[in-house]
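Recap from last week: sequence in, structure out.
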Amino acid sequence: MKEITVQSKVLIADSFEELSPKEKELCEQAILAKENAYAPYSNFQVGSALLLEDGTIITGSNQENAVYPSGLCAERVAIFTAGNQAPKLAIKAIAVATCAEEKENEFPAFPCGSCRQVLQEQEKRHNSNIKILVISHHNKVYVIDSVKDILPFSFSNDFL
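Predicted structure tokens:
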């Protein structure tokens, strides 16, 4: 049996000041979007902000429903809104902010598997990597260059 190793590169910015002005704005918009979350069941508010290739920013927040899993994550709310409002524009970056306070020496909450799969589809659809910025409770930002780095063995239409 052979073994392969899969590695991911994650950069960590200790503050928003280490980001580009547009990335900083994206993170700030994700934090603001979190306030629009409807999360009465989990009490876990999430906000996201997408940067489209024309500079437009689209935000989303998680929207829960008493009938699980009928709600949607913040990331998918923003991605599907972008798909409806600007279907031909590639997503260049997404910032994600949660209310969760991570434990010492642990990562903040990254996008769930379903959101990663939807992000992967968008990367493939537009043939363009999506930078992922995950904001920690202390405003550190974990920067990932592509969803491939956090979903290395994704399913795609290549298998259909």
